[in-house]
Design the sequence.
């Protein structure tokens, strides 16, 4: 789907405005669920945001899908490389959705329908998050959400 990739920008991840909109939509939508259970909303943390975005970009650019990156690093190891050490628990949700205007909302619904993903979203210990999104050359949007408890 090279035409679509070219239409969205120079990288398979699309222009920054589209990525930011998808990331913000996921963050806002996901925060509805903990708040509905009386929990505090997840606060965006720049370092987590960047780590999530880079993982999504890597999956989109290099054509893989997994919690481990191309070098076998987990979210824990990727954050330690960024000198993020002030946590006691970490979690990560990933997803791949066909690129559409509703992809961000769809991924949130899918995560809430999955027991493991849902646990990360409503885990009371988690207070901070970061969300990353990137479009691959086939038009799929890859999402990563990192969760952290201090």
Sequence:
């Amino acid at each position: 789907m090279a035409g679509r990739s070219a239409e969205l920008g120079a990288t398979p991840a699309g222009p920054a405005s589209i990525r930011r909109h998808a990331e913000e939509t996921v963050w806002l939508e996901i925060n509805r669920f903990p708040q509905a259970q009386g929990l505090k909303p997840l606060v965006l943390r720049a370092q987590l945001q960047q780590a999530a975005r880079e993982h999504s970009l890597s999956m989109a650019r290099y054509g893989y899908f997994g919690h481990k990156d191309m070098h076998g690093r987990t979210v824990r190891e990727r954050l330690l490389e960024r000198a993020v050490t002030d946590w006691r628990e970490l979690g990560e949700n990933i997803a791949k959705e066909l690129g559409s205007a509703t992809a961000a909302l769809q991924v949130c619904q899918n995560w809430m329908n999955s027991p493991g993903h849902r646990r990360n979203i409503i885990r009371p210990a988690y207070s901070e998050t970061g969300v990353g999104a990137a479009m691959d050359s086939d038009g799929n949007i890859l999402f990563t959400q990192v969760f952290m408890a201090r």
In short: The chain has six helices and four strands. Helices lie at 2-8, 16-36, 46-62, 75-81, 103-112, 115-122. The first strand starts at residue 43 and ends at 44.
